[in-house]
Design a protein that fits this description.
With 319 residues, chain A is of the alpha/beta class. Chain A has nine helices and 14 strands. The chains are: A alpha/beta (319), B alpha/beta (112).
Chain lengths: 319, 112
Amino acid sequence: MIVRFWGSRGSLPVAIGVRGIRAKIHEALLAARGHKLDTPKAIESFIERDLPFSIGGSYGGNSSCVEIVTGDEEFVLCDLGSGLREFGNHVLLSRGPERRSVFNVFLSHLHWDHIMGFPFFTPAYIPGNLIRIHGCHKAMRNAFIRQQSAPCFPVDFQSVGATVEFVELETGHSYDIAGFSVTPFPQNHPNESYGYRFTRDDKVVVYSTDSEHKYQSLEPSHPVIDAFRDADVLIFDAQYSLAEQTSSKEDWGHSSNIIAVELAHMAGVKHLVMYHHEPNCDDHALDTILAETRRYAELSVSDSKLQISSAYDGLEIVI
Amino acid sequence: MEISEQRNGEVVVLGPVGRIDNDTSPDFQAKLLSSVGDNGARVLVNLSGVDYISSAGLRALMMASKQSKATEGRLAVAALGPVVQEIFTISRFALVVQVFDTPGEAIEALRA
């Protein structure tokens, strides 16, 4: 099983500009001094080994979209942020434009950054494709219609060629979908959001974004601990610092890296992936936050085995 | 949790000892909020005896900070050890709670 990130950014897609690119090139060239980089292999090795990720790479800027790859015929996606566009291009490239596919989507909620990719999802315009959008919000269909209608969008939702089904799920129930046992659970977020626990062959992936965990979540008996329990991968909204989460951004519906680590430790999570990155954080800031989060895990549990990553567009985690 | 309390003029100085985590933070929070009160109290938390502080402890400080501001009081922390200093940095709490290197500096500032 592979968890593949097509969009990791929260609230709003972002794009690095010319200043950001020039800064990366400048830093890379400074770091390259004294290195013999006369072959493509030497250059590749230098980038991989000697440059921090924020210089040699990027966390990207697409909004929430995660694929769980099983090798089965049907696709499984979490959220339809702007990262969906590149996923759609990938599908057409890898399967060809003639082959028809089934897409199983699990929506955390209906805020625009989590559905904004749909109008740009090319497979949605191809008759014969089937898109099943699962979620716990009754207003799913209306949200997609509103998003893709005049005066806000020139191509009406009703004109998409694929068959689009909206499947309402309930929390507290488990569903057999696309080879997974899927259990939605409620989260604390304006207009409500839902996380999903995916289980298959004793492997567990939990998608939990746009959830503000207040102090009560840290009680061992809190339902979120069960929702996260023993997850091989926990995808977790750590958009804010703890200071922001408990002051200026209180009740905005997001959590922090500190809470992420504490909950992951309590629930026995194996790999924590921070997600839904703050748009104002550039690559350097996200590198710093990742290092700090790993350090906090060491400080809080002396023999911590928790693996910690920060999601980036293009990240693939093999379970 | 062991929390000493002293007065330095008008400043109440609290001295928690050990770890401030899920188990001990209720005591810490209760003592802290009681000291902040509702009448403009000036409170210093001397963290020199604290080995580690979790989100629960930081949350108590945030609640106390809000209560202090609401009641025209003042709150500060001082003498953070290396681990607590790291946690304050990681959590960005140094941006929301006044931090001083020494209790002396903090008391002088709180009196001003």
